[in-house]
Design a protein that fits this description.
alpha+beta, Rossmann fold, Immunoglobulin-like, 6-stranded mixed beta sheet, 16 helices, signal, coiled coil
């Protein structure tokens, strides 16, 4: 016969057996902590008890000022303390070295600096590292220094150990703003923090969890000394902590109540995920220094997967800023290491990008110029794709440069004719024709080679077609340049036959006017007509041409005038990717207005301006490398403008 257990009893048992919810972390804002400096010495005749005693006294004299008011300093005499009373951390540091400080352990609340002293080759070698038992974090760098004079060891040790001491704190979120937190400094109300926490200081973050073990039955006095609690006291659950990788805080302000406001830097969308007892942090001893980065493939053997130059690395100490990038932010790859061009202060916001579609962001505390490893996997396919993209962009840039050079040549030739320097104008025109033809052939050869590569990335063919359109425009303009060469040859031939100077000037002016009209420079052409009429007199035919041009150039309406002014005056000043994108609807409308009014002159001027767009796009793209979304938006804008260029060319034909 089965028995039915009452539901209320089942619920009561479940509730009674459920673990108690984690209590909020105690920020300990009033009582100072303990900073314990442990000196480990290797056996050596020079490391005598007297030497160790003097070193202890030097440390006790040097360090309290660095910790006040958030901690008191202890330098125990390990020789007088039985090894079975040593803290496990000391034993691990002695047997395994200072890397042992990275081992996870229950939080004790005690900050420990381990100083190792050895004598080799006639010098005293010092190594020091700090572990903070409140946050569970170890200071990243191992400090090293060597001195030869024994009387200088104490001073060197004090400076070496003191560099890494920093206040710890408890992280408190700011409601409604995931990018900012408050840090309640441990013992932050015990005294002024001006010298310990300042604007732009950097804190590392740890994730604190509650364990099933009991915490050590100890507590501190108001001065930070550890005392045993009364027998029978129920200890709270122990806390343990692990670093929150690549997550850092930068101080933006410090209040008098010991609370710092900090900006959050993390590659994670949720820097402080739930499920922890809380988060704590430790101030790092960052500096201003050049930065070096080594990319590490976390899933590969470095010996078989050497560093790649396919990736780009850039960094700023101003944050991960949107928009165009300062070219000075890019690192230089040298022997598998990417090195910054200048010094960065405190926290380097590093962006690693591979091609136009993949990037990773890493906040990196700055401790010095030694390389920092960052996990970034690069396989052969990714590298090949990035190299292909760079090659396509490079050839597109060369095609754009050729068209810009050709447009510049048109302007220079016109200026030379205006100044009566027809021989120089002819020389430059011939050189521009030859240069444009050679550039066009070279670009087409590169396009052919790129099409022959296997596995081109998505969108590559569209870019190559755009390059071919650039070359077609280059050659079409070369036809006009060739005509300019013939016209100039005729003008110079007239001058050689010693015809009337006015006739030579008139012929040269006509050549210049044709060139100006081909580029849509109507105002300048009208001015040249006026100059020509002044030179040769009121020639009815020339005056008629001038008047017809002036009539053609008159806007047909206010809408027409505004559209022309926008396309030839305002729009060319667009300086950013956002400006270009936002201009597209108005550009489209203005072009339609010009076409409806048959304004071929303004459209020719627009065509010259559109020829310079690819070069502007490439310049903007270099600033957006490592920002895939913004870069993709810029490419889309460039495609729209390229199709508009084709539409204008077709209309003019």
């Amino acid at each position: 016969m089965s028995r039915l257990v009452p539901l209320a009893l089942v619920v009561a048992v479940v509730v009674a057996s459920a673990p108690a919810p984690a209590q909020p972390l105690d920020a300990e804002p009033t009582a100072p902590g303990v900073w314990r400096v442990v000196v480990l010495t290797a056996p050596h005749p020079l490391l005598t008890p007297a030497f160790r005693d003097r070193l202890r006294r030097d440390l006790m004299a040097a360090l309290p000022a660095a910790a006040h008011p958030v901690a008191t300093v202890e330098v125990p005499d390990l020789a007088a303390l039985p090894r079975d009373q040593w803290d496990p951390l000391w034993l691990q540091a002695e047997s395994k070295g200072l890397a042992a400080l990275d081992t996870p352990r229950d939080l004790s609340g005690v900050t420990t600096s381990v100083l190792r002293v050895d004598v080799r080759d006639g010098a005293y070698h010092l190594e020091a590292r700090l572990y903070d038992g409140f946050s569970g974090l170890a200071a990243p760098p191992v400090r090293r220094q060597s001195v030869r004079a024994p009387e200088l060891v104490g001073r060197a040790a004090g400076l070496l150990v003191g560099r890494d001491f920093g206040p710890a704190g408890t992280v408190e979120p700011v409601e409604g703003n995931a990018d900012v937190v408050k840090v309640r400094i441990r013992a932050g109300t015990a005294g002024p923090l001006d010298k310990l926490v300042q604007k732009d200081d950097v804190f590392a973050v740890s994730r604190v969890t509650q364990s099933s073990r009991a915490a050590p039955t100890q507590k501190r006095t108001a001065t930070g000394k550890l005392i045993d609690v009364a027998p029978g006291t129920v200890a709270p659950p122990a806390l343990s902590a692990v670093p929150r990788d690549h997550t850092y805080l930068r101080v933006t302000g410090v209040a008098k109540d010991g609370v710092a406001t900090c900006a959050v830097f993390s590659p994670f969308k949720t820097p402080f995920p739930p499920g922890a007892a809380g988060y704590r942090c430790l101030k790092l001893a960052t500096v201003r220094s050049p930065v070096a980065v080594r990319l590490v493939n976390p899933s590969a053997d470095a010996s078989k997967d050497p560093p790649s130059r396919a990736a780009t690395v850039r960094a700023s100490d101003r944050g991960f800023l949107p928009g165009p990038v300062d070219p000075r932010d890019f690192f230089n790859p040298v022997d598998g290491v990417y090195k910054s061009a200048g010094a960065l202060n405190g926290l380097a916001c590093v962006t690693v990008a591979l091609g136009a579609t993949r990037e990773a962001r890493f906040p990196v505390p700055v401790f010095g110029p030694d390389p920092v490893g960052l996990p970034f996997a690069i396989d052969a396919k990714d590298e090949e794709k990035a190299a292909y993209e760079r090659a396509v962009l490079a050839v597109a840039g060369r095609a754009s440069d050729a068209r810009l050079a050709q447009n510049l040549a048109f302007g220079n030739i016109s200026a030379l004719i205006k100044g009566g320097r027809n021989d120089e104008a002819l020389t430059q025109a011939r050189g521009a024709v030859a240069s444009a033809e050679a550039s066009g052939l070279a670009v087409l050869d590169e396009v052919k080679a790129l099409r022959g590569r296997p596995n081109p990335p998505a969108g590559a063919e569209e870019l190559l077609l755009a390059v071919e359109r650039q070359v077609a425009g280059l050659r079409e303009s070369n036809t006009q340049l060739n005509q300019r060469v013939k016209d100039l040859e005729a003008v110079i031939d007239i001058a050689k036959r010693q015809e009337a100077p006015r006739l030579v000037q008139a012929q040269a002016a006509n050549v210049r006017i044709r060139g100006l009209l081909e580029g849509g420079e109507v105002d300048e052409a009208l001015a040249t007509y006026d100059q020509l009429l002044t030179t040769i007199g009121a020639d009815p035919e020339i005056k008629g041409r001038r008047d017809r041009l002036a009539e053609e150039w008159k806007p047909k309406s206010d809408e027409h005038a505004k559209a022309r002014e926008y396309l030839t005056g305002t729009w060319p000043k667009a300086a950013t990717a956002a400006d270009l994108k936002e201009s597209l609807p108005r550009v489209r409308t203005a072009v339609d207005v010009l076409k409806a009014n048959g304004d071929k002159h303004a459209l020719r001027r627009l065509g010259r301006l559109l020829a310079g767009v690819p070069a502007k796009v490439e310049e903007l793209a270099r600033g957006l490398e490592g920002s895939p979304q913004e870069l993709a938006g810029l490419r889309e804008t460039a495609g729209v403008l390229a199709r508009l260029d084709e539409e204008v060319v077709a209309f003019l034909r």
